[in-house]
Amino acid sequence: MVSVALTGAGGQLGHDIVAGADRYDGIDLHPYTRSELDITNAESVLDAFSSIRPNVIIHAAAYTAVDDCETNELHAMEVNGAGTKNVVDAANAVRARVIYLSTDYVFDGTKTEPYIETDRPNPTSVYGRSKLAGERAVSELSTQGLIVRTSWVCGSHGANMVKTIMRAADAYPQLTFVDDQIGKPTFTADLAKTLLTLAQRDDHGIMHITNEGVVSWYEFCRHVLTEMGRDPSQVVPCSSTELQPPRPAPRPANSVLDNTRFGQLGLDPLPHFITPLRETIRDLTK
User: Which helix (H) or strand (E) holds 182?
Assistant: First the structure.
């Protein structure tokens, strides 16, 4: 039996990890929501993990409001950087392994090919810099830590782009989305299953994990409308420079993460994003 502590249990990914853990006989999950565990308080984190002494900590808690981070840099660094250091320090004290959730935003998006794990990070946003600070805390303080980078996270719980598009499609006759930012949508139900599998292994270093399929935000919006049974011509493309109002945080033009290492370890690839997108829309429209 593997004892697993989970931070960020109330978030959209955390919700699906909690739900998925019931299907794993070999996992004893100890979930902590933000109200139950303040990761910016080092003493509280150490006390929590010392009381259960987990084998693995899945660290999914984060400040993920990308645009808000631009005007709240101190808070972003406190949560995503210093908070992650607190988690790693406590993990070391109880001899637990950390699986840290990171992001495509650690890259600047200027590469023309998919990003691999050994590419040099160069974040252009406060959010990206704060998550990279978390990565460095894991890599510098733990020899057995695993950094999992993912992208364009969506699911049935919490705020995400699928829900935003669905609301907008009902409210406006025409939607405008950028066609010069590309990435791989990743759905929390699939990612949660994979993280629970990884919790029972001993992989370390950096690993990219996304659903398959590369799209622009414009193309993704068209897929959402199609799965809703709506006319995809309701959405029109624009460039990032034409977007009004402009977004406070810069977005990587290329957010495509290569999943080669994941496959090389013999792990099953996540399905093409269309499959979980269809399931998510079905859940949200019940």
Answer: strand 182-183
Identify whether the C-beta of residue 215 lies closer than 8 Å to the C-beta of residue 174.
Answer: no
Give 190: exposed, middle or buried? Use CB within 10 Å, 0-12, 13-18, 19+: buried
Concerning whether 63 is annotated as a catalytic residue, the answer is: no
Options 63, 105, 127, 218, the catalytic residue? 127
Enter the pTM of the model. 0.96
Tens of pLDDT, residue by residue over 79-123, are: 999 999 999 999 999 999 999 999 999 999 999 999 999 999 999
Q: Kindly state which CATH superfamily the domain 2-158+186-212+256-270 is placed in.
A: NAD(P)-binding Rossmann-like Domain (3.40.50.720)
- Strand 182-183, strand 146-150: pairing: unpaired
List the domain boundaries for the chain. 2-158+186-212+256-270
